[in-house]
Description:
Pfam families: Ferritin. By secondary structure, this protein is mostly helical. It has helices at residues 2-30, 36-63, 81-105, 110-149. Fe (ii) ion binds at residues 17, 20, 49-50, 53, 95, 123.
Amino acid sequence: MANQELIAHLNEILKHEWTGVAQYSQASFIVEGVWREVYADKFIGDAKESFGHAQLIGNKIVALGGVPVATRNEIKQSRDLFEVLQFSLEFEAKAVEMYEKALELAEGNRALVVFLEDILNDEQEGVDEYTKLLRDTSTASAANSARKSG
Length: 150
Ligand SMILES: [Fe+2]
Protein backbone atom coordinates (compact mmCIF):
# COMPACT_ATOMS: atom_id res chain seq x y z
CA MET A 1 0.00 0.00 0.00
CA ALA A 2 2.82 2.36 0.88
CA ASN A 3 4.26 1.46 -2.51
CA GLN A 4 1.11 2.71 -4.23
CA GLU A 5 1.49 6.15 -2.69
CA LEU A 6 5.16 6.21 -3.64
CA ILE A 7 4.44 5.11 -7.23
CA ALA A 8 1.70 7.75 -7.55
CA HIS A 9 4.11 10.43 -6.37
CA LEU A 10 6.89 9.19 -8.67
CA ASN A 11 4.39 9.49 -11.52
CA GLU A 12 3.76 13.13 -10.55
CA ILE A 13 7.53 13.61 -10.68
CA LEU A 14 7.68 11.89 -14.08
CA LYS A 15 5.02 14.28 -15.39
CA HIS A 16 7.09 17.20 -14.09
CA GLU A 17 10.22 15.86 -15.83
CA TRP A 18 8.30 15.45 -19.14
CA THR A 19 7.11 19.03 -18.66
CA GLY A 20 10.76 20.04 -18.30
CA VAL A 21 11.71 18.27 -21.53
CA ALA A 22 9.06 20.27 -23.43
CA GLN A 23 9.46 23.57 -21.55
CA TYR A 24 13.25 23.77 -21.84
CA SER A 25 13.23 22.54 -25.47
CA GLN A 26 10.70 25.24 -26.35
CA ALA A 27 12.80 27.87 -24.54
CA SER A 28 15.82 26.75 -26.57
CA PHE A 29 13.91 26.89 -29.87
CA ILE A 30 12.48 30.38 -29.39
CA VAL A 31 15.34 32.28 -27.75
CA GLU A 32 16.51 35.01 -30.16
CA GLY A 33 18.90 37.92 -30.22
CA VAL A 34 22.51 37.89 -29.02
CA TRP A 35 21.70 35.74 -25.97
CA ARG A 36 20.63 32.90 -28.29
CA GLU A 37 24.32 32.07 -28.59
CA VAL A 38 24.43 31.24 -24.88
CA TYR A 39 20.92 30.19 -23.90
CA ALA A 40 19.90 27.92 -26.80
CA ASP A 41 22.54 25.43 -25.61
CA LYS A 42 21.89 26.04 -21.92
CA PHE A 43 18.16 25.29 -22.28
CA ILE A 44 18.71 22.21 -24.47
CA GLY A 45 21.13 20.96 -21.81
CA ASP A 46 18.41 21.35 -19.19
CA ALA A 47 15.88 19.57 -21.44
CA LYS A 48 18.34 16.67 -21.69
CA GLU A 49 18.77 16.62 -17.91
CA SER A 50 14.99 16.38 -17.50
CA PHE A 51 14.91 13.57 -20.06
CA GLY A 52 17.64 11.74 -18.14
CA HIS A 53 15.63 12.08 -14.93
CA ALA A 54 12.45 10.93 -16.72
CA GLN A 55 14.32 7.81 -17.85
CA LEU A 56 15.52 7.06 -14.32
CA ILE A 57 12.10 7.64 -12.74
CA GLY A 58 10.17 5.76 -15.47
CA ASN A 59 12.41 2.72 -15.07
CA LYS A 60 12.14 2.90 -11.28
CA ILE A 61 8.32 3.06 -11.42
CA VAL A 62 8.30 -0.16 -13.46
CA ALA A 63 10.79 -1.79 -11.06
CA LEU A 64 8.38 -0.97 -8.21
CA GLY A 65 5.52 -2.61 -10.11
CA GLY A 66 3.84 0.55 -11.44
CA VAL A 67 2.99 1.93 -14.86
CA PRO A 68 4.73 5.18 -15.87
CA VAL A 69 2.58 8.06 -17.12
CA ALA A 70 3.24 9.47 -20.59
CA THR A 71 1.65 12.86 -19.99
CA ARG A 72 2.91 16.25 -18.89
CA ASN A 73 1.66 19.50 -17.39
CA GLU A 74 1.25 22.79 -19.27
CA ILE A 75 4.52 24.48 -20.08
CA LYS A 76 5.36 28.11 -19.37
CA GLN A 77 6.95 30.03 -22.22
CA SER A 78 7.91 33.59 -23.02
CA ARG A 79 9.97 35.59 -25.51
CA ASP A 80 11.32 37.60 -22.57
CA LEU A 81 14.54 35.90 -21.45
CA PHE A 82 14.30 37.23 -17.90
CA GLU A 83 10.84 35.68 -17.60
CA VAL A 84 12.11 32.37 -19.01
CA LEU A 85 14.82 32.35 -16.33
CA GLN A 86 12.15 32.94 -13.68
CA PHE A 87 10.06 30.05 -15.08
CA SER A 88 13.19 27.90 -14.98
CA LEU A 89 13.89 28.73 -11.34
CA GLU A 90 10.26 27.94 -10.45
CA PHE A 91 10.52 24.66 -12.35
CA GLU A 92 13.69 23.60 -10.53
CA ALA A 93 12.36 24.68 -7.12
CA LYS A 94 9.21 22.60 -7.67
CA ALA A 95 11.40 19.62 -8.61
CA VAL A 96 13.38 19.99 -5.35
CA GLU A 97 10.11 20.04 -3.40
CA MET A 98 8.80 16.94 -5.23
CA TYR A 99 11.97 14.90 -4.70
CA GLU A 100 12.06 15.90 -1.02
CA LYS A 101 8.53 14.53 -0.64
CA ALA A 102 9.52 11.35 -2.51
CA LEU A 103 12.39 10.94 -0.06
CA GLU A 104 9.96 11.06 2.86
CA LEU A 105 7.86 8.34 1.20
CA ALA A 106 10.99 6.25 0.49
CA GLU A 107 12.09 6.25 4.13
CA GLY A 108 13.41 2.85 5.18
CA ASN A 109 14.44 1.89 1.64
CA ARG A 110 18.11 2.87 1.68
CA ALA A 111 18.85 2.20 -2.01
CA LEU A 112 15.82 4.18 -3.14
CA VAL A 113 16.82 7.05 -0.83
CA VAL A 114 20.30 7.17 -2.40
CA PHE A 115 18.77 7.01 -5.90
CA LEU A 116 16.44 9.93 -5.15
CA GLU A 117 19.12 11.94 -3.34
CA ASP A 118 21.33 11.84 -6.44
CA ILE A 119 18.56 13.39 -8.53
CA LEU A 120 17.66 15.85 -5.77
CA ASN A 121 21.24 17.06 -5.89
CA ASP A 122 20.89 17.82 -9.64
CA GLU A 123 17.65 19.72 -8.98
CA GLN A 124 19.24 21.79 -6.21
CA GLU A 125 22.11 22.63 -8.57
CA GLY A 126 19.45 23.87 -10.99
CA VAL A 127 17.96 26.11 -8.30
CA ASP A 128 21.40 27.46 -7.38
CA GLU A 129 22.31 28.13 -11.02
CA TYR A 130 19.09 29.95 -11.94
CA THR A 131 19.20 31.91 -8.69
CA LYS A 132 22.66 33.16 -9.64
CA LEU A 133 21.67 33.87 -13.26
CA LEU A 134 18.68 35.93 -12.13
CA ARG A 135 20.81 37.80 -9.64
CA ASP A 136 23.27 38.75 -12.41
CA THR A 137 20.45 39.79 -14.76
CA SER A 138 18.84 42.07 -12.19
CA THR A 139 22.22 43.58 -11.28
CA ALA A 140 22.95 44.17 -14.97
CA SER A 141 19.55 45.74 -15.64
CA ALA A 142 19.80 47.87 -12.47
CA ALA A 143 23.22 49.04 -13.67
CA ASN A 144 21.73 49.78 -17.09
CA SER A 145 18.84 51.84 -15.76
CA ALA A 146 21.23 53.68 -13.43
CA ARG A 147 23.41 54.46 -16.45
CA LYS A 148 20.41 55.65 -18.50
CA SER A 149 18.97 57.87 -15.79
CA GLY A 150 22.41 59.16 -14.75
FE1 LIG B 1 14.80 16.77 -13.10
